[in-house]
Amino acid sequence: MIRSKFVAALALVTLGAGAASAADLAPFPYAKAPPLAYAVYDWSGFYVGGHIGGSWSNQVWTNTANTTLFGDLVPREGFGQHGAGVFGGAQIGYNWQASNYVAGLEGTISGLDNSGTLSNTVFGARDDVFSWHNNWMATITGRAGITANNNLFYVKGGYAGVNSHLAVSDVVPPAIGSGSDNHWHNGWTVGAGWEYGITQNWIFGLEYDYAAFGTRAYQLGTNFGVYSFDVKPRDIQSAVARVSYKFNGPLVAKY
Asked: Which domain covers residue 92, as residue numbers?
């Protein structure tokens, strides 16, 4: 009997010691999983590239002073014509990015072959043959856009200038001759586009632009004197595909 009580007491003491030891143990630490990181495309940086596409011109020229036998138009008479052709060149610029907003400056220079020929048939089938063409165009614009990781949607606007040429020839006697002149026209441009970051450095894009220009006085000197016109590239529209290389543009880890 005494032996049974002793065994029972020993068991109670052992259980109490075990419980006390368990209470003294520190709680099992919980390790929180680290947040997942994902890559965000960084549009900031300097870039250079090229573009190619098509353009459409509206050209207008109006006679201002017909003081020779050569000219068949009286003052304020003239013509207008549409022309289209290949449009391509190079761009250079810099982007700044804050959050998902991008601002930038860009300069472009482009060659174009928009041209046309028109005959004034007042005194013959090919009397007063006019020919014109737009040679090359330059822009300096600001850009502003919003990003969706590798995608950039933007608008742009600023200065535009174009070199234009006008020539006339008369093949109907007695006043036979020819003359030409060319000038640089200042204007403005607006546009919109989309770009996609293919890699950290290579960017592909599509862009549409509209440009309008001021009027310049042209003096088409001939062997009969001067044939004077006000010439205006009324507007030039272009749509191009772009490829650019962006320097120092790493992907940024964002949490």
From this structure: 39-254
